[in-house]
Amino acid sequence: ETGVTQTPRHLVMGMTNKKSLKCEQHLGHNAMYWYKQSAKKPLELMFVYSLEERVENNSVPSRFSPECPNSSHLFLHLHTLQPEDSALYLCASSQDQGDNEQFFGPGTRLTVL
Amino acid sequence: AQKVTQAQTEISVVEKEDVTLDCVYETRDTTYYLFWYKQPPSGELVFLIRRNSFDEQNEISGRYSWNFQKSTSSFNFTITASQVVDSAVYFCALSEAESGGSNYKLTFGKGTLLTVNP
């Protein structure tokens, strides 16, 4: 595997479900990001991790809970989501927190029923 | 506050036509970076170019070229002799070079959907 991978690619869940999105980067980078891409809206930065520490929480509701167990893996735990949370969730990584050249994964298309 | 505007929501061209995607940005900083990303139907954002605010030279890479004009705050992207494989959503983005290592913050435009028809 190379680059940034995300699983699952598609996810349908009910509002009471708990699920997790997984991101893995094979680039040796130290910073990882979660973005939300909704229809007709610009990409929104959700969370930033640098060396496994969260450095940014961009006013994201607590029903989204990130976890970064090591510099190669990033999770987004989902709980009691709303239909408006349906979107494409993109993971990205960069060499360091101060490096704005970010490499993106293919995303997880999430549908909340 | 920084802002990126891509006024063209959708563009449709026929193969081999040239097409220009517009990007206008707003920033108070004198040091910043501009980007273009391509998002094919598979979903992954593919990095195309990064340009810093001190380098106004136009860049050409194969059929792609970029025109950076600080006077008009624009960073337009031209595809020459378009091909069906160029069909994708293209995003322009801006990052301000803040001190303290926060210049990872990318502000994206809403994107332009380019459809190249055979």
Key phrases:
heterodimer; A: 113 residues; mainly beta; B: mainly beta; four-stranded antiparallel beta sheet; globular
The succession of helices and strands of chain A, N to C, reads: EEEEEEEEEEE
Mean pLDDT of chain B: 91
**Percent of residues in helices of chain A:** under 10%
Secondary structural class of chain B: mainly beta
What report would you give on this structure?
The complex is a heterodimer of chains A (113) and B (118). Chain A is mainly beta and 113 residues long. Helices cover 0% and strands 57% of the residues of chain A. In chain A, strand 7 (64-70) and strand 8 form a beta hairpin. Chain B is mostly beta strands and 118 residues long. In chain B, strands 2, 5, 6, 10, 11 and 12 form a 6-stranded mixed sheet that branches. In chain B, strands 3-9-8-7 form a 4-stranded antiparallel sheet, with no helix packed on it. Chain B is globular and about 45 Å long. Classes of the chains: A mainly beta (113), B mainly beta (118). At the A-B interface, strand 9 and strand 10 of A face strand 5, strand 6 and strand 11 of B.
Short synopsis of the structure:
In chain A, 0% of the residues lie in helices and 57% in strands. Chain A is an all-beta fold. In chain A, strand 7 and strand 8 form a beta hairpin.
What secondary-structure arrangement, pairings included, does this model have?
The complex is a heterodimer of chains A (113) and B (118).
Chain A: E1 4-7, E2 10-13, E3 18-25, E4 31-37, E5 44-50, E6 53-57, E7 64-70, E8 73-79, E9 87-94, E10 103-104, E11 108-112
Parallel strand pairs in A: 2-11
Antiparallel strand pairs in A: 1-3, 3-8, 4-5, 4-9, 5-6, 7-8, 9-10, 9-11
Chain B: E1 3-5, E2 10-14, E3 19-21, E4 24-26, E5 32-39, E6 46-52, E7 59-61, E8 64-69, E9 74-79, E10 88-96, E11 107-108, E12 112-117
Parallel strand pairs in B: 2-12
Antiparallel strand pairs in B: 1-4, 3-9, 5-6, 5-10, 7-8, 8-9, 10-11, 10-12
